[in-house]
Amino acid sequence: LQFHPATEPWNIGAFIAIPMTLPNGLVLGAFCAVDPRPRPWSDYEIFVMRALTQSVMTEINLRSKVDELALEQEVRDRFFETITHDLRTPLTAAKLTAQRLKRLHQGSEKEAALADRIVSNMDRADRMIQNLLDANSIKAGQGVSLSFVEQDLAELILATVADLRPGHDNPIEIIDDQGAIAVFCDGEYIRRAVENLISNAIKYGSPEESIRVILHGEKDWVSVSVENRGNPIPLDTQAALFDRYRRSTSATSGTKRGWGIGLTLVRGIATAHKGTVILKSDEQSTVFTLQIPRDPR
């Protein structure tokens, strides 16, 4: 090459180029090497060049896939937000209609009870939609926006359990040996976190055993533990349970349906309160503990 008119000014005596081919067959370019000395390339040098080219193309392909996945995730998130927003419109209309029916039938306990049941289920569906939105926000790293108010944790949990009991057969036992437990928190979010933990305990625990909700308060921390009997959660799957849309092997292979966002939401709420979620599962029981500071402001 040293006497070729195109390469002579660059003092190139030997040149090697390996095509950089994309998965679809398109040649992106070439991975090249030059030597000012005129000489043939050895088999080892050719092998190294091919290996380097393959390494470069692997990196390029991976970055391309990452960009594709990021775009796909963005489109999915926008679709998700749109559809959840649109779902709320008929829910709100149905709830308002049920409330109007209740007012029209104030003298009839049966119709009023049916209207209350409709409103209750509309509220539950709305909370499910909000859980989806919040879990999506948490996964995107945006967290949730809290409003801290001082309140009695024991009273909050009692009200939460009272709302859950009518819809489930499992007995729910509250253990609180301290009485009132003052804490600064966002009551609605704590309520939803505990609802998710109790619902999971009912869904995946033994149907013959009661669910225990244990309240505890220290000087600087308070906690709510939800305990159920049943099959333990394998240690190698416990950490992944807090990822969005991830469920344990027993959950995915069983008959219980779910989206796999509940524990993502619980952990996000705990983190927003500067707290944590602790999981302990063995042959005796499975316990999820939501622990937050008394004053996380």
How would you describe this structure to a colleague?
The chain is an alpha+beta fold and 297 residues long. The chain has three domains: 8-65, no CATH class; 74-139, Helix Hairpins; 149-293, Heat Shock Protein 90. The protein is built from seven helices and nine strands, in the order E-E-H-H-E-H-E-E-H-E-E-H-H-H-E-E. It has helices spanning 43-104, 109-139, 153-164, 187-204, 235-238, 249-253, 262-272, and strands at residues 14-21, 27-35, 149-152, 172-175, 182-185, 211-217, 221-228, 276-281, 286-293. A five-stranded mixed β-sheet has the order 4-6-7-9-8, with helices on one face. Strand 6 (211-217) and strand 7 (221-228) form a beta hairpin. Helix 4 runs antiparallel to helix 7.
Please tell me the CATH architecture of the largest domain by its name: 2-Layer Sandwich
What is the CATH homologous superfamily assignment of the largest domain?
A: Histidine kinase-like ATPase, C-terminal domain
What's the Cα radius of gyration?
Answer: 30 Å
Distance between the termini: 73 Å
Percent of residues in beta strands: 15-25%
User: Structural class given helices, strands, pairing?
Assistant: alpha+beta
Domain tally? 3
Number of helices: 7
N-to-C order of helices and strands: EEHHEHEEHEEHHHEE
CATH hierarchy class name of the largest domain: Alpha Beta
| Mean of all residue-level pLDDT scores | 83
Strand order of the largest sheet: 4-6-7-9-8
